[in-house]
Amino acid sequence: MTVSIRDVATLAGVSVGTVSNVLNRPDAVSAASVERVNSAIETLGYVRNDAARQLRAGVSTTVGFVALDGRNPFFADVVAGAENEATSRGLALLHGNSDEDAARESLYIDLFEQQMVRGLLIAPFGDVTARLKRLRARGIPSVLIDRFSGDGSVSSVSVDSVAGGRLAAEHLLERGRRRIAFVGGGFDIRQVTDRLAGARSAVDNSEHAGTLEVVPTHAMTVDEGVSAGRRLLERERRDRPDAVFAANDLLALGLLQSLVVDGRMLVPHEIAVVGFDDISFAAAAAVPLTSVRQPSALIGGTAMRILLDEALDPDRPTRQTVFSPQLVARASTSG
Amino acid sequence: MTVSIRDVATLAGVSVGTVSNVLNRPDAVSAASVERVNSAIETLGYVRNDAARQLRAGVSTTVGFVALDGRNPFFADVVAGAENEATSRGLALLHGNSDEDAARESLYIDLFEQQMVRGLLIAPFGDVTARLKRLRARGIPSVLIDRFSGDGSVSSVSVDSVAGGRLAAEHLLERGRRRIAFVGGGFDIRQVTDRLAGARSAVDNSEHAGTLEVVPTHAMTVDEGVSAGRRLLERERRDRPDAVFAANDLLALGLLQSLVVDGRMLVPHEIAVVGFDDISFAAAAAVPLTSVRQPSALIGGTAMRILLDEALDPDRPTRQTVFSPQLVARASTSG
DNA sequence: GGCGGAATCTGAATCGTTTCAGATCGGATG
DNA sequence: CATCCGATCTGAAACGATTCAGATTCCGCC
Lengths: 335, 335
Description:
The structure is a homodimer. Chain A is an alpha/beta fold. Helices cover 45% and strands 18% of the residues of chain A. Chain A contains twelve helices and twelve strands. In chain A, the strands form two sheets. The first copy, chain A, has a six-stranded parallel sheet, sandwiched between helices. A six-stranded mixed sheet of chain A has the order 7-6-8-9-10-12, sandwiched between helices. The longest helix of chain A is centred in the C-terminal third of the chain and has 17 residues, at 296-312. The N and C termini of chain A lie far apart (71 Å). At the A-B interface, helix 4, helix 5, strand 2, helix 6 and helix 11 of A face helix 4, helix 5, strand 2, helix 6 and helix 11 of B. Strand 2 (92-97) of chain A pairs antiparallel with strand 2 of chain B. Chain A binds a DNA duplex through residues 2, 4-6, 14-21, 23-24, 28-30, 33, 48-58.
C-alpha cells in the first residue's frame, strides 16, 4: 500500500541500507547513488514513516506543550515563542489545553508520554511534580512554565509573581490608592496566590495605611472579570475599593468593560485598575490598561531551549530561570 | 531499558498476545488473566509505546492543525473548539503556526504527513490544494478552515466572507458614512479579498454614492493597525475617510488605539470603525468595536467532526460548510 | 599483477505492538 | 467415553526505518 524504503531501494537498484544512508548520511554515499535514490523517491512519492523511525530511534521529533488556557493571549505568545524555537530544530509541537482541569491535564501528560515526546513544556494546574519525575526517569525531561518546582527536581522558567504583585500594589499605593481589591480566582494556582502575596506584602510594608481585600472569581476570564465588576457596582459607594489589582489581564479587561459601560465608577478617577501579563490587547482597552508585563515569547523560547538541552544531556542539572516582571503604566491608573 | 509488553507478559506468566488483548479487547480474556496482567503493568510501570502501535496500525492518534496566526484570538478559539472535539475521542492535536509564511506552512504539512496524522485541519496561506489532494490519496483527509477549496476536492468549514464584507459596508452606509476605507493586507489571502469584494459590492449596489478605497497593510496585526491609523492621521482632513472597515479585529483594535491616543479623529464621530471576527477583546476596546462575528469554536468543532468522519470513511463525499456571519454593532459605529 | 586501505555498499537484526491461525482447555452432549 | 464447541491462550509474522559488522569495489603504488 504505502511506499516504503524497500520499494525505493528496489527501484533505485540499491539496498535499503543505502537508501537510509542517502536520507541520513548523504556524505557516506556516492553521488551516483544519491542521484538514483533521490529520483526513485521522487517518482514513487516516498514519504518517511515517522512511527518506524521513532520506534527504532526510541525518541520522537515532537515536544508536548500543556497550557492552562490556550485562549489566553499570554499563553498563545508563550506557545509561539516555544514553537519558533522548536521549528528551527525540526521539531513539532503537540498542543494540549488543560483548561484548568486536572483530569485533562493528566490525560495530556499520559498521551504525551505514550507518544514518547522529546520533552514536555507545561504550565501546570494540579500538582504534577510526581508525574514529571516519573517522566524524567523514562528519559523525558520537562520544564515548568510560569511556576517553580517545589524541590528543584524539574527546571522552570517563570516570572517572579510575588515581585509582580508587589509592583502592582506599590504602584497603586504611590498613586494614592488605599483600598485595594485583589480580583482573582483559582487559588490552587500558584501564580495567583503569589501575586496576591506580593500585593499583601506591599500593602503591609507600606508607610501608607492601605487595605487589601480579595474579590474571588471562578476563573480568570473576561466574563468573570465582567461579573466581578458588576459585583463591585452593586456595593454602596463607601464600600467600594478605590483600586483593583486583577490577577490577569483578561479579568482586568472584563472588569474595565463592565465599569465603562455602566459609567457609575470612572476609571481611573474613582477606581484604578492594574492587570497582569500585559497582553497586546491591554494597550487597546477601553481605558488603556496598566499591567505587569511578562516577557511571554522569551519565556516560551527559553523554556524550549532548556528543555532540548536537557533532552540531549539527561544528567544536566535542573535550572530555575526567573525573569523580572516590569510595570507598564497606562491610563487606567493615571488619575 | 524501557518496559515492553514482553516484560509484562513474562511477569504475568502469559503470552504477549494476551497482554495485547487485555489492553485492546479485555472481553476476550479471562478475568483472572486481566487481573494478573494489570497488576504486572502496575508494578512495572509499563507505558504503551505509541510509535510501535502506530507503525503496526498504520495510523496515529494525532490530528494536525496548521493555523495562519496562533496569536490571533480567532484562531485560538478555533483551535480550542477543534481540540475539545478531538480530546473527547482520545486524539491529540499537533499544532503548527504558519505565521503567514508559505515555507513554514509547507514544512508543517510535510511534518504532519510523516507523522501520519489522522487528518489535517488547515487555515491555508498559500495554494495547498495539490498537497492536500496528495495527502488524501495517501489516506490523510483534510478540512480547510475559513476557506473554500476551489474545485471542491477538499472539505471546508468557513464563514461567508463576501457576505461578511457586505454586512460591514452596508452597516456603514446605513449609518451615513460615504468615504469608506478598507484596511487590510495579504491580498493573497482569500478571506481578505473576499471581505473586500463584499464591501465593494455593497458600495456599488447602494443607492448612496459611496466610495471605497484600499489602505494596504503588510500583515493583519495590531501593530499594522496602529501604523495604518498613523497614516490616516497624516492626511489632510478632507482626504480622510469617514469610516474604516478593517480586515480583522487585530487591525481594527490597533487602528482604534492609535486614533484614540492621538485624539484628532474621534471615533465614531469623525470616523467609524468596523472589524472582523468579533474576538472577545473587541467588546473591551477603547471604543467598543463593531465587528462581523464568526462562530469560531463552532467552526473548529465542526471541522474536526467532518475530518474524523472522512478519516473513518475515505469515500465520503466532501462537504463545504458555510456559516453566516453576523454583525455585532457597538459604539465604534454608533455616531 | 598484487597489495593495502579507503570508500562504498549490503542485508539481517532490531525496535514494541498488533494480528491471527492454530493450539489447548473445560464442559456439555449423545 | 468419545466428540464437539466455545472460550481462552499462544507465538510467529508483520509494520518500516536504522544500524552495523562484514563484503565488495576502487585506486594508487610498488
